[in-house]
Amino acid sequence: MSQLSVRHLLGIKDITEADMQLIFETADHFKEVLNRPIKKVPSLRDITIANVFFEDSTRTRLSFELAEKRLSADVINFSASGSSVKKGETLLDTVNNILAMKVDMIVMRHSSVGAPHFLSRHIKANIVNAGDGTHEHPTQALLDSFSIREKLGEVAGKKIAIIGDILHSRVALSNIFALQKLGAEVMVCGPSTLIPRYIGELGVRVEHNVRKALEWCDVANVLRIQLERQQGKLFPSLREYTQYFGIDKKMLDSLNKEIVLMHPGPINRGVELSSDAADSAHSIILDQVENGVAVRMAVLYLLASSRE
Amino acid sequence: MAAKGKNVSLRNQIAMQKRLIVPHALLQIMLQRLCHQLIETHGDFSNTVLIGLQPRGKFLAQRLQKQLLEITGKNIPLGFLDTTFYRDDFRRRESPLAANATSINFIIENQKVVLIDDVLFTGRSVRAALDAMIAFGRPAGVELLILIDRLYQRDLPIEANYVGQQVNSLASQKVLVEWQNENTAEDNIWLISKTDEV
């Protein structure tokens, strides 16, 4: 198989395990390209991609932009701040205006759940969801699984604990879908106020003791406390969160086992992860960032080839 | 009309055959000749590298490198180049091509490169390969070695420096180079046709 089953990457929920394996195999080849003296291939030279970001982003946006440039696509960037969105233009109007400039693909981040799904019903261009509210962030989940596969050989049969703010995290939901489709066991861990009430129905384990979660898992994917999304008091203070759910190197070393530490960034150093843990040999955080470009190249390449 | 009908039936007859165009023994002689032609041009291979084009040029390149080692005692650097991301038919094919691994563990800057593929047809793969190769440096020179040159089928002005055999064929036919392995007893080259013509 050399083609995805979908035209848009809206979420991991919509794609198959075979799609993910194809993305990983293609990303392997792009990773080799990224280690060449000349890190660029001409595949998408007749394609224009718009990065439409209605919400702030550094890593994801840079990663997408680099992936697009490495594939020789023409790139335009749009951010909601300082645009006509402030003047009251609707999402569909904004995007249709961008498409009128002959754009083939849209990479979109939006604060509303389902915004890319809505768009996919109204426009022809391929859409890549770069995060929709607290729903999905599919490319992050793909690069997380790709990094686990690279580090441990495979994802199937591995135990992965997702630790932190599960309630507000689109990374958590996409990761749960991706890891389960690839045959891994998933646990979520955090204070009960930051874990959605019915998450057990997705078939994940729920744990509230971070030490027990670490003892159980092969991989700990630690999520950021999303200060900007906290409404009301879900935990008393950052200091208390760190005391009960923060991970430091001493704790990792005391487990006396191989453990892989991941974080989608940006890290709140000294909150969910201490600096010595984030920079320790357990951590593959910077590998995740490197793999992000290769995985996004694979997604864009495969979606572009399935345009018709 | 009758003459045209006759031509069509003759064409179908040819198309239905899976014809052996290079048998095992002849192919061995051909490989020996290609090795000696390379030695004639490249001498001690001190500044030469071999690059097999994925997917099928890889086998020929491996075979030639092995035979050159036996004849000259030199282990010539060998790499494999995948051209999928450089092709000019991206988004124009019915189904996309799957990529293969590229493994070139040397820099080709100022080296003489011999590109190796099994069949030269339209020349488009070779054009993509020339493009892909530049990512590994600026070579001193590039040559092309081909086992089967399909005459009169070129879309681009590309010709090989070393040719195993030239073959007349219809555009709809296919040349299949089979290498000896656990499933195949002999090296053979076949001219075959697509089943929908039969």
State the CATH class of the largest domain in chain A: Alpha Beta
Determine the strand fraction of chain A and express it as a percent band.
5-15%
Could you give the distance between the termini of chain B? 22 Å
How many whole angstroms does the radius of gyration of chain B measure? 18 Å
Question: Into how many domains do the coordinates of chain A divide?
Answer: 2
Coarse morphology of chain B: globular
The CATH topology of chain B is Rossmann fold
What is the strand arrangement across the widest sheet of chain A?
Answer: 7-6-5-8-9
Main pleated sheet of chain A: 5 strands, parallel
At the fourth level of CATH, the homologous superfamily of the largest domain in chain A is: Aspartate/ornithine carbamoyltransferase
Overall 3D form of chain A: globular
Low-confidence stretches of chain A: none
What does this structure look like?
The complex is a heterodimer of chains A (308) and B (198). With 308 residues, chain A is α/β, with parallel strands linked by helices. Chain A is built from eleven helices and nine strands. Chain A has helices spanning 17-34, 59-70, 91-99, 115-120, 138-152, 170-181, 210-216, 238-245, 249-254, 275-278, 285-305, and strands at residues 48-53, 74-79, 105-110, 126-132, 159-163, 185-189, 205-207, 219-222, 260-262. A five-stranded parallel β-sheet of chain A has the order 7-6-5-8-9, sandwiched between helices. In chain A, strands 2-1-3-4 form a four-stranded parallel β-sheet. In chain A, helix 2 packs across helix 11 (285-305). Chain A is globular and about 55 Å long. Chain B is an alpha/beta fold. In chain B, the strands form two sheets. Chain B has a five-stranded parallel β-sheet with strand order 3-2-4-5-6. A three-stranded antiparallel β-sheet of chain B has the order 1-8-7. In chain B, helix 2 crosses helix 3. Chain B is globular and about 45 Å long. Chain B is built from four helices and eight strands; from the N terminus they run αβαβαββαββββ. Chains A and B meet through helix 1 and helix 11 of A and loops of B.
